[in-house]
Structures are given as structure tokens and as C-alpha cells.
User: Fold these one by one.
Assistant:
Number 1:
Amino acid sequence: MTAQRLDGLAIAQQIKDEVAREVAALAERGIRPGLAAILVGTNPASRVYVNSKVKTCGELGIYSEKHELPETTTTEALLHLIARLNAREEIDGILVQLPLPRHIDTQRVLDAVDPAKDVDGFHPVNVGKLMVGEPGFVPCTPAGIIELIRHTGIELKGKKAVVVGRSNIVGKPVALLLLAQHCTVTICHSRTVDLPAECRQADVLVAAVGRPEMIKGDWIKPGAVVIDVGINRVDNRLVGDVEFESAQRVAGHITPVPGGVGPMTIAMLMKNTLYAASSRA
Ligand code: NDP
């Protein structure tokens, strides 16, 4: 048996087509969604992500602007910029590309973004809404993961989901979303005692670790849905957190890296920006 591949590129394209249609409908009412992306420093991966987000905005008819700041930028200067963007009506979404340089107080920066413009869903107000199940901005990667799983057609209710990783960006929010879908959720991390045994229980396995090919095929329950969030550069190629070759022989569905979760993240950012602009309308 070979697992069915979950084609993130194709599913993301469907979402972007839908966003483009709705952007065009908003334009008839005189509204153009606007996204401001802030990039601090010279991290090459961050630069690639921001450029890709800005480019996608252009393709969908969303206005965007890129604020590139030097590595030496202070927390205060960043807070100043965010205050200005918060005040501008034509900016619906503000995204601060993470990670920020170490001398910057990341949490203070995220707290400064107007929750109504927090299209990354990292402001504590939106984090809290996700926790209590109120509508708000949901972080893009976790939202994209749920969308990918939805495309398998598999009913999540009652399934055992295992999330490896407990970051605020991926692990914790995706665990909450799976819980909201009535999964029984286990969150694993670096102190988990027997990770292979935990993974073998999973009907849905989400790997968000950042360790190349750590999760092996024989850790996977036959027929499981395997979502590989990891993006690791090894010898100039990208690999996930799951050992794809062995895993695809056991899983029922699996995401490739690249072409799985990555494109979904950007598509969901576009959707969140549209949603922010619709609220303005
Ligand atoms: P973090 O580094 O913030 O978190 C990694 C998590 O993995 C931590 O909770 C850590 O545990 C856990 N972990 C580390 N080592 C082990 C281990 N040996 N066994 C079990 N758990 C372990 O990473 P992110 O969540 O930000 O990102 C994870 C991966 O996803 C990265 O490769 C990143 O590049 C990728 N990513 C991809 C995105 C996309 O769009 N496709 C978007 C965001 C991230 P502990 O908490 O105990 O330290």
C-alpha cells in the first residue's frame, strides 16, 4: 500500500482562487484588502517567506507593503511602526515575520498588533478566543493543517490525534483545533518518554518538530493521516520531520515536503487578510 499524497499546492490554489473572487467582489464596493509585512534582519528563510506572501497578495488583488528593517532595530522602533500601521485604515492585516532578532521583545511586539489586524493569530486576544472557541484569527499553519485533513474526507470525531511539538505557532494551536473537531488529542514534546509508542496510537499524526526525518515509518499506525509541518534544509534540499520513504508505505494519507503544509500557510494568510477586510466593509 502507498499512502495518498495530500497535495497542498493544489488545495492552496483552490483557496487562493476563492479569495481572489471575493477580493474582486469587495473591490466593487470600493474596498481593497491590505497587508503590511514586517521583516527584521537578514534571516534568509524569513526573507523568502515574506517575499512569497507579498507576491501572493499581488496575484490575488490584495494590496501589500513590505517593511524591511535592519537587524539592529529596537523593540521601541518596531512598536512605533506597528502603532502607525494599526492607525491606517487601508491596512487590514499586519504580520511580523518570526523569529525576530534575539534582542527584540517578541511578545511585546505581538501584543502591540491590533487584534482586529492580527492575521497571524498570535495576539493573546486571538489566542484566548481559540482557547475558548470564539471566532477570531486562527494561526495560518494550524488552520491550513485542518483544511488539508478536511480534504481527506475522514471524519475526525473520536479519532486519536497526536501532535509532536508544542510551539505557540504550530503545536499548541493545532492541538486546540483538533480538540475542537472532537479528536482525543495528545501533545508530545522533547520530554515525552516514549515518542514512538505515542505516535503509533495516532489516527492523525502532526509532526511539528524541526528535526529532519525524525519520525520513522514504523512509528506510524497503518492507514494514519500524517501531516508533516517540518521544513528542514539538509544538503541543499528540503526535508520534513517525517521519513517520507518509509512513512508513505504505512500511512493512509501523507503530506509531501515541500508542497504540503507550506503552501497552505500562505493561502490561509490570504484568507485571514480577506476576512479582516470584510470586517472593515
Ligand atoms: P519550535 O522549535 O518552536 O518547536 C519545536 C517543538 O518540537 C518543541 O515543542 C520541542 O519540544 C519539540 N521537540 C524538539 N525536539 C524533539 C524531540 N527530539 N522529540 C520530541 N519533540 C521534540 O518549532 P515550530 O513549531 O516553530 O516549527 C516546527 C517545524 O515546522 C520547523 O521545521 C519549522 O520550520 C516548521 N514550520 C513550518 C511551517 C510551514 O508553513 N510549513 C510554519 C511554521 C513552522 P520542547 O517544547 O520540549 O522544546
Number 2:
Amino acid sequence: MSKIIVIGAAGQIGTELVLALRKLNGEHRVVAADLKDSCPPLLAGGAYVKMDILDRDFVREYIIKNEIKEVYLLAALLSATAEKNPDFAWKLNMEGLFTVLDLAKEGYISKIFWPSSIAVFGPTTPMDNTPQHTIMEPSTVYGISKQAGERWCEYYFNKFNVDVRSIRYPGLISYKSLPGGGTTDYAVDIFYKAKAGEKFTCFLKEDTALPMMFMDDAINATIQLMEAPAENIKIRSAYNLGGISFTPKTISKAIQKEIPSFEIDYQPDFRQAIADSWPNSIDDTNAKKEWGWNHKFDLEAMVKVMLENVKVELLETK
Ligand code: NAD
Ligand code: SER
């Protein structure tokens, strides 16, 4: 049976994706790979390899030797971290993608998942119900790297028949692992403060609407996209994916329904400009039509699950 690797497996998405893929395919078939010395305790049941995606020779040798046929490439710098180190963000976000695309072009890999983001859009994009095909002038290094990545994915599909699939994830909200430096991280951080009985100071203004999604929906979408017949995948750049759209004020009100004493105040920082350049909500008609996507969690359901499951102790592992 062919093997699957998730590179960037110790991150917010990787942790849950590895768990879901192992449940579907068996523990022995899914290798978790990350720059970190050791694997997150949640993934201890299966294989782990310390891998730097920028070490092209090591990555090539590992994938070829172990006959890995499916790659989920998640290693990247996210929007806020990338703005602090633009040169390195560009290098990390692009070079790893080429290593994997080239392995597929040479016939070693048969399928790739590489995530894009709502960050591909920019200040000139229509902000409400943003269409799949529209003006895209991203103003962050992260968004520029994701847009370039999308173009390269489509190019490798058209020129070399590489089966690469992608989603423009919105901000993802989860409790099994911590987020890794994005502009939408406030919508996770808020739950840790609420659960600890502390006031939350938000780094975005109260009325900043952004597209968001609960992690279970994002993992289901990823697996659904990867399992869809190739002929259903009409878009080889990346699919828009809608979920829920809310502002810091709306989510704080939803939390106050569960914890009436919860308090929030606002001290916007450099991330406000990033958020202001992104859409408020997303039109995902193509994903619905072409591979049957639909989200399950609305704001209330997501808030309930988060408050039930967030463990404040996880912050100590940061
Ligand atoms: P994360 O920061 O939580 O995890 C990234 C993981 O990659 C970390 O475990 C890190 O150790 C690892 N990594 C970093 N450099 C590496 C290297 N050189 N070699 C190997 N591993 C390395 O990020 P995430 O939130 O899980 O995001 C995963 C992917 O999804 C990224 O491409 C990101 O742009 C995209 N995405 C995420 C979101 C979100 O809200 N989380 C939204 C849109 C897109
Ligand atoms: N959640 C991501 C970020 O804020 C969006 O790609 O960077």
C-alpha cells in the first residue's frame, strides 16, 4: 500500500490532518514530518521524521526511498510571522513547493495537497462574498507567496499533468493544537482567555469581519477534495472555501452567551492592516458544485465545541 506524508505535521492543521488521515488509511501508512525535533504527543502512534522542507536532497531521498505517493505540504510562515521576515517567508513558502511539484513531475509522487489562503486576495478585491475568479492584488508577503504558489500549481498541472489540489483556507479555529502566527489567530486566542476567566485584548478592531472555519470542516474539505475523482477538479490553482464570517465583536457576544462575565477590549496592531486587505466573506459555489463541499459548523456550534474542549494548559507547550 502506498504511503502518505504530511510535511509541517506538528502545526495547527497538520496535527489534525495526520490524525484524520491515519484514521482513514491506518497509522502505518501516514508519516508525520516536521522541522521539530520530536513529534507532538497526539501523533505518537505513527511514524515521525524530522525533516526540513528546505533540505531538498533529504526530502527527495526520503520520499523516493520510502515510496511515498501522496504529499500534504503544510510547512509555511503564516501572514503575521511572514511580515516580520519577508525574505525567509518567500524562500520557505516557495522552495518547498517546487521540491514537491518537481518530484511529482518526475513521476515519484502521484498526488499533492498544498494549501492556499484567503490572503491571495487584496484591498482591490470585492470584499463581500468574494468570487472564485476576481481581482487579486495581495499586499502581504504571505499573500504574494500563496498567489504565486497557486499559479505554479496550475502551471505544473497544465504543462506536466501534476495532480495538485488546493484550497484557499479561511482562518481556522481549533483546540487540539495552537495556531502558528496568523492574522486570524485572535479567534483561537480568545477562547483560551475566556476559558481561563480572563479579559481578552484583541489585536483587531471590533468590526473587522473575516472568513473563518472550524477545523473539523477544514479537514473534511481537504479529505473530500483529495478523494474526489481527478476529472471533478476543474480548478487547479485553489478553491474558494466558505464557512462562517464574523467580527471580534460578534464572536465575543457568542462567547458571552456561554460565559456572561467574559470581557473583551481592543488594541489593534500591525495585523489590522492585513485583516483590512482580506475579504469579509467567501463565495464557494465552485467547491460545492464540483466536489460536493458544504460546511457543518456555524458560529454557535463552533463556540460551544471550543469552550468545551480548549485546554488552557496547552499554552504552556508554546
Ligand atoms: P502552523 O504554523 O501551525 O504549522 C506549520 C508547521 O510547519 C509547524 O509545525 C512548523 O514547525 C513546520 N515547519 C516550519 N518550517 C518548516 C520546515 N522548513 N520544514 C518542515 N516543517 C516546517 O501552520 P498551519 O496553520 O498548520 O498552516 C499550514 C498551512 O496551511 C500553511 O501553508 C498555511 O499557509 C495554510 N493556511 C493555514 C490557515 C490557518 O488558519 N491555520 C489558513 C490558511 C492557510
Ligand atoms: N489564518 C491565516 C493567517 O491569518 C490565513 O491564511 O495567516
